[in-house]
Design goal:
Double-stranded beta-helix; 6 helices; globular; 247 residues; 12-stranded mixed sheet; 3-stranded antiparallel sheet; 20% helix
């Protein structure tokens, strides 16, 4: 059994497949709940706390939907990050553009800039630097063109935003599939993300997706565009879906 100290922990590398050690020399953006331990002189403050004192740092995080889920780790030391026993992977962007599932992103260097993606549940990282993301199983790297199950999709880099492909033949042949589609409950058999062009797509080795509470905030943010009749119709469909869900 390995026993670590501040000196023996790796610097900027995995401790094991499920935990990563950030060698902190300044600031890092960290997802709330991802820190499991730290050595040294390290503080954690909400991203919004830097809006008045260090506006440049706060401006690197441009997502009102997700900002409350993040903190800035400041100081000097080693910070251990993990996510429910999932695999933790580090990636380096070099003047790149990567879109990643928001709830799998665990941390990133402030040399990167985060923006909210137009695809619900995802965020974009721009620039150069290191970021950490968790995955349920090893990450698979795939080149377009191909179609991905939305629940297995972890992210994509340097390629166009995917289009949504519906398999109408599968839905027509399956009454259950039609009912699920009507209530917004879709599987990878009937709905996929279609990628074209060049770039790299990241898949996790399962279809288990962590529940993202920010998606509710995103829906609420857009609901003001609905008419009263539309809002009422959506409410009825959501109630019907909730009643079908297992207790």
């Amino acid at each position: 059994m390995d026993t670590f100290s501040a000196a023996s922990l790796p610097s900027g590398d995995n401790v094991n497949p499920y935990a990563f050690c950030v060698d902190l020399q300044g600031e890092w953006f960290v997802k709330k709940g991802a820190m499991i331990a730290h050595y040294g002189s390290v503080t954690f403050e909400a991203v919004t706390a830097f809006a008045s004192t260090r506006a440049y740092l706060a401006s690197r995080f441009s997502s009102p939907v997700y900002v409350q889920d993040w903190v800035v780790a400041s100081g000097t030391g080693k910070v251990l990050l993990a996510d429910r026993g999932f695999d933790v992977n580090s990636f380096d962007l070099d003047d790149g553009n990567l879109t990643v599932r928001a709830h799998n992103l665990l941390g990133f260097a402030p040399t990167l800039e985060l923006k909210q993606s137009i695809v619900p549940g995802f965020v974009c990282l721009l620039g150069s630097g290191t970021f950490l993301a968790s995955s349920n199983g090893p990450v698979i790297f795939v080149e377009p063109p191909f179609r991905a199950d939305p629940e297995a999709l972890l992210g994509w880099a340097d390629c166009p935003t995917p289009a949504v492909h519906y398999d109408t033949e599968w839905m027509s042949a399956s009454l259950a599939g039609m009912l699920q589609g009507a209530l917004g409950r879709e599987s990878g058999e009937e709905r996929q993300y279609a990628f074209v062009g060049t770039g790299t797509v990241l898949l996790q080795s399962s279809e288990v997706v962590r529940e993202d509470p920010a998606l509710l905030r995103l829906v609420e943010q857009q609901s003001h565009q609905l008419s009263p009749a539309q809002a009422g119709g959506l409410g009825h469909r959501l109630v019907a879906r909730a009643q079908q869900s297992p207790a």
